[in-house]
Amino acid sequence: FGTRIPALAARFGAVPAIIGAVVIGALINAAYTITSGPVAWAVLNFLHGVIGGVPWVVSEIWMNVVVEEKQRGRVMGIYSSMVALGMALGPMVLQLVGVYGPVPFLTGAALSLLVALPLLPSWHTAPRIRVDAASGFGTVVLLAPLAMFAAFACGLGEQVAFSFLPVYAVGAGVPADTGALWLSAFVLGNVVLQWPIGWLADHADRRAVLAGCTLASALLVLGLALIPAQWAGTIGIVALWGGLSFAIYPVGLALLGQRFRGGDIARANTAFSMIYIVGGLVGRPITGAAMDVIGDPGLGWTLACFYGAATLAALLAMRRSG
């Protein structure tokens, strides 16, 4: 379905596509309260995943279409900070409303509708999204390989962190509540560091900024594998890793907007988001297998390999253009 999103937004408009998807998503959330069983919930999860991609992809296309080149890095950085902030607030909402019964599902539905309300004034004024019929997804991937690989590396690292970081912490001898704090620190780093790195991406070669983020991320995850987990400074390493590794995403988006114009940007943004998801799907089984074979350090060594490959790709891109 992801490949259909640009055509959907081009046909109905950015705001109608986003709000329509949000309303359908809210109805799916409500449907959890009247269904039960693994099959029904698997179907609802699948539908939620399909619909949830629409606001994500269309909003990124919208931003890349309207933002000025000199501010692209900062705008994408602010956007990424808001995404991370939403991730941080989700568990806090569940702390307030609980995790049992219909209340958390209905709360999620209500909040999603509430967030969509500010878009209504832009119903007719949002930029028109165009799709270039002459270009395909394979074409845009080949035209921007560095940005696409950045999406892959970021998706892999982020999803591995969310899936394995608390498990890694407990396995390394850290109390479970401290392991949960590690994940909070990872998200906090995301929130805090995106705008400064976005500013840097507007004032320096974005490929160099990308190389710096991926190299620093590789060194930080290696440090996580080599230092004692009980050391007080470990949580700071996790926070830096969170901020620098997630910055790969907005810097990649900025590179994408720098490379494409017109109808190509819609397909390029969609491909970028899809490759980010693929990175997450690939990274978890690889990292899990590495941790089974060599123990908890397998997390750091696996991620360092992919971050290192992204660093090399960025450096090669700089050398080739030079």
Q: Tags for this entry?
A:
322 residues; single chain; 2 domains; 13 helices; 0% strand; 80% helix
Average pLDDT score = 88
Rg measurement, Å: 20 Å
CATH topology of the largest domain: Growth Hormone, Chain: A
Write down the oligomeric state. Answer: single chain
Order of helices and strands: HHHHHHHHHHHHH
What is the name of the CATH architecture of the largest domain?
A: Up-down Bundle
Q: What is the helix content?
A: over 70%
Alpha carbon gap, first and last residue: 39 Å
Précis, in short:
The chain is mainly alpha-helical and 322 residues long. The protein is built from 13 helices and no strands.
Account of the 3D structure:
With 322 residues, this protein is mostly helical. It folds into 2 domains: 2-122; 137-321, Growth Hormone, Chain: A (Up-down Bundle). Helix content is 80%, strand content 0%. The chain is globular and about 55 Å long. The two termini are 39 Å apart. The model has no long low-confidence stretch (mean pLDDT 88).
List strands and helices in order, with pairings.
Elements: H1 5-12, H2 14-31, H3 38-66, H4 72-97, H5 103-116, H6 137-143, H7 145-171, H8 176-203, H9 206-226, H10 234-246, H11 248-259, H12 264-294, H13 297-321
